[in-house]
Amino acid sequence: MIIDRNAADSIEMDFPTLPLADSAVARTYRAGDLEIRYHRNPVLSGSSAMIAAPYAMTVHHDGRYLFAVSIERDDLRAMAPMIGIPLRELQEEYGVKGFYGEPKVSLYGNGEKESLGAYQGLNDEKEIVDFLLSVVLDTFDELAEPAEVQKAR
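^ thats the sequence. predicted structure below, dont judge the formating
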């Protein structure tokens, strides 16, 4: 997904799995004229989302929320009653012992949601941040290195 920051519309809340722009912001970065917010476990726009997003980045330009990239996992506890399958059976089907499916990468922008498939990186926060930042920079064809401008307290 490529986004023209000057022509793109703000993201509409049409996707229940879209991270809210001001939820759980852990750090803020600047790259050129982009504001990039890193989120840990943000609230999602839909109240009935059956996924969890442990990590996400949202991109803002001229006060507009243009893009989000998130690492998402199916929330088996939320899914089981909605689809009428016992949690244990769902865990077996997913091949997991915990409450979440495998991590996947999703992009939101230009009125679309796009999946990049499974997240293949380590579950290390520095690596996750670097990965998400690289997706953002590629999406906006931004050459400037991101600089952190604010840390959460």
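The mean pLDDT is 91.
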